[in-house]
């Protein structure tokens, strides 16, 4: 350790030149620029918001979105995202306020109509939910999430055939949400009494859902529910 200190003192005067006045000003300007860069960018904040949301820290995400909206008071995307966080914590009034603001700022933001539809659905206003899903699909007919949500809501309204048809349309758009689509179609078929079709759809859903996916547990419960009476009946028949 002593050798290191000695060597530094021995050579430091020859290695470090004394900056001129103009060089000092340049260094100060460079340092000021670096300090400004330390302030988190809008993009960086959105990355943090997504991380907090993925971890279920919705209140933290809301707090960061508050700061972002203070910076960008006309950002429809940020109002929509904050509304989604409020929806996650079941603060439907505040969620609705944010979705309305997002739509007022950007009437073509299909995601905001979808989320507002979900908010209405959670409140039990299914007809208003359908109305918002229809508006979202008018803007972007390739939004797969909207088709899925509309199918679920139609099922809640008791229109099983139309729910199946809607989920079929969702399936045609792409493969991203196939696990969820098969699961929801399976549950719809279960409610219709088509248990064999339901079991088939549940198994397809599980084949698409990655291990540990939050939807996986839900589908496994649905599958167990439909298999239980089938297994019981099979056991009774084997006893005889």
UniProtKB/TrEMBL annotation:
Superkingdom of this protein's organism: Bacteria
InterPro entries xrefs: TPR-like_helical_dom_sf (IPR011990), TPR_rpt (IPR019734), Ycf3 (IPR050498)
PROSITE patterns: TPR, TPR_REGION
SUPFAM superfamilies listed in its UniProt record: TPR-like
Pfam families membership: TPR_1, TPR_6
Keywords per UniProt: Repeat, TPR repeat
TPR repeat extents: 76-109, 110-143, 179-212
Classification via SMART domains: TPR (SM00028)
Gene3D superfamilies: Tetratricopeptide repeat domain (1.25.40.10)
Name of the protein in question: TPR repeat:TPR repeat
Species of provenance: Crocosphaera watsonii WH 8501
